[in-house]
Amino acid sequence: MLGAVSTPNADPFPSTYRPFASRPTLIRNVTILTAAGPTIRGGSVLLREGKISEVGAAVTPPADAVVIDGSGKYVTPGIIDNHSHIGAGGSPSDQGAQMNDVNEATAPVTAHVWVEHSVWPQDPKFPRSLAGGVTTIQVLPGSANLIGGRSAVLKLVPSRTVQGMKFPGAKYGLKMACGENPKRVYAARGPATRMANVAGYRAAWIQAEGYRRRWDKWSADRKGDPPTRDLGLETLAEVLRGNILVHNHCYRADEMAQMMDIAREFGYRIRSFHHGVEAYKIADLLSRDSISASVWADWGSFKLESVDAVKANMAILNRAGVRTVMHSDDAGGEQRLNQEAAKAMAEGNRIGVPVTEDEAIKWMTIHPAWSLGIDGVTGSIERGKNADVVLWSANPFSVYSRAEKVWIDGAMVFDRLDPSSQWRTDFELGFVPANRGGSQ
Amino acid sequence: MRARLAAAAAAVVLLPGVVHAQTIAIVGGRVHPVSGPTIENGTVLIRDGKIAAVGASVAVPAGAQRIDATGKVVTPGLVNGSTQVGLVEISSVPSTTDNAARGRDGIAAAFRPWEGLNPRSVLIGPARASGITSAVVMPTGGLISGQGAVIHLLDGLAPEMILRAPVAMVATLGPASGPTGMPRAETMYRLREILDDARVYRTRRADFERAQTRDFAASRLDLEAMLPVLAGTMPLVVNVNQASDIDAAIAVAREYRIKLIISGGAEAWMVADRLASAKIPVLVGAMNNIPESFATLGQRQENAGLLAKAGVPVTLVGNGSMGPDVAFNAGNLRYDAGNAVAYGMDWNAALRAITLTPAETFGVADRVGSLTVGKMADVVIWSGDPFEFASQPERVFVNGVQSTVPTRQDLLENRYKTLPPSYRAP
């Protein structure tokens, strides 16, 4: 490398995460929703050296294994939320607390910002999401901007630094946003219309194309001074090279179809449409372009572009073969993605677009993992994958079920039955009564 | 002229809610009257829009419509104790939001939001289809937001939907980060100032009309609206979260002999004994555990269960993002009850907290909130445990009438379940 000369596309804030200490753990006599195949009843799963080492009907535990009886309980992969703002929007969020670092609403294109630089590892929302069985999240910049900046994929583990939470090897995401939010935020200076939104994306990609060409040429021949670095264009060029995944906030079907054309024009892929309250209207188009749909169970009517929200959105998408993701965009919802999925599954079954539990479990595990490009290492209960696992007190699609134990890379990081072991952030000490374990 | 009169008369007769359905017998279900113990294999008899009988051995009259509820669960229609349904259609579009008055200096005591109730809100149907048959609609914002009402979710005109109004005055106390922007003690002295002025106004109306009183801190209509609160005939709902702020609200209520209802109550569990001994009803959510503000540091999901155990009259409401407080999701209330149970609340207590307790708290328990003879026939037949996601409200009766009007969401789902031919090209 060039020593002191900074170069693009390096990893300037590398993950320092290391799996926590773990013991071989066997969970047996348990119902396993694998997100990879049919439900295994009365099965066993062995976690060893950070990985899922065995899954099946009968697994012989090593002599030193902790054995947990899972009778009446369920095992699922760790829940993954691909649309979170926790850490970047910290709590408490009182006026004057200056904890809202989600939207850099100063210009419509802020591809140069990286949301990890907003993440406060002591946000008390992290342990609460973990207690909801969530093991991995994508923190996204907000939706004020056409292009909002880079996302961060994090593991929900206690750490003094955000680097200590970063998911090793996960690609960055890029947040883009359609529709009402950018045009509302920039009404005075533009974009003030949806047509100017589209002009804004295209102008940014045109610049990014040129930037990529200049750098790719220089990287190949190393002649003369390198081109001047531009943080924003570096991010966009990495999207064009396929190294950063696009997460596009978009509500309306017609706007999603336009974003798909823009992606084709500039040769990038949209990995997921987020919110997509009208995604059910274009399930065929999403399926055709292999774009995942990250949606809610039942958010709607909070702005005009959300009035066509239907609770069968996920079921209709699921039937069309779209990779359907239950996302939250909300710290409370993130703790209960299993309940959100249960609602969406019930609505499909009510209207005759059936959804099975084996499908619905994917909405919050392997599908979001795919949307983040980490489905090769997590998101399902399969031999060799990271041991990101949840033991639920009952069927996770029941309102009465709660995550009882959670493992990340084979290490138990949450145990509802042992409140004294539970993660409390620095902020909580002295401020928050030590009572929230929920087992009183 | 005569023909037009006849048509008008026919229109009156055809008004939904005026016409009552035939006699209906719901038989074989697991009946939760809420006002009494669960009845296995029970019968609920509906006649002329009222509950005519409830029990294990009720004779079904000849000619009654018989509905087999074997394997199903029968409950009263649910009462959403705090929501915006009918007042807010699209929250970001001001012309469709009628829940928050501008008021004067944070005071809007005279605000009666039900006068802006939209009986054609497309969010009423989904709420009803989810088992909600009555809802307390609350004004929001400012120090004194205005007055709440209980509406009946029937298919009809706005006046027919008003079950009782007003039912409460709504105020907000607490920290400067709250909607009033005032520090705690300022919210207290402003409230006292209004109450004191209302007292003076009550005895010196004539002097006021002749401009022979000192200036009051609120307008005539706002002072007038506060009189039932002072008289103890209209409860005061106080939105407040921190334990010490709840204690402060209790103190003011005692000082002025006000009937107090606590809403929000994030830290109410810390003062459960005092709330119980003063018999102060509390409206709380069951799905909040994030210290989202310094006033809610002690927020926890066990709140409702702990309060109920202490003997506090608990009404479960939504107070989270997109929860049942939001009009679009008013029907999600049953999941809050389920979550409350998951965090320690007794199942029957949770059902009561979304039926009879809110009805009692807001003075409509003579007509709704339980399956009791003589009450309005607001009844829901569930396919299973009403708190479970997989269960569906299969039939919902309001005044003994089952609405069959498809909701806007039904229409959209039906349109896109199979793509219409005209939409086949992208």
What does this structure look like?
The complex is a heterodimer of chains A (440) and B (426). Chain A contains 12 helices and 17 strands. With 440 residues, chain A is of the alpha/beta class. In chain A, helix 7 crosses helix 9 (337-351). The model of chain A has no long low-confidence stretch (mean pLDDT 96). With 426 residues, chain B is α/β, with parallel strands linked by helices. The longest helix of chain B is centred in the middle third of the chain and has 20 residues, at 184-203. At the A-B interface, helix 8 and helix 9 of A face helix 10 and helix 13 of B.
Query: How do the SSEs of chain B run, as a string of H and E?
Result: HEEEEEEHEEHEHHHEHEHEHEHHHEEEH
Biggest sheet of chain A, open or closed, and with what strands and sense?
8 strands, mixed
Class inferred from helices and paired strands of chain A: alpha/beta
The coarse silhouette of chain A is globular
Radius of gyration of chain A: 22 Å
> In total, how many beta strands of chain B?
16
How much of the sequence lies in strands of chain B comes to 15-25%
| Approximate shape of chain B | globular
Average pLDDT for all residues of chain B: 93
Using the CA coordinates, give the radius of gyration of chain B: 23 Å
With helices defined by DSSP (H or I, 4 residues minimum), what is the helix count of chain B? 13
Summarize model confidence as the mean pLDDT of chain A: 96
Instruction: Spell the H/E element sequence of chain A.
Output: EEEEEEHEEEEHHHEHEHEHEHHHHEEEH
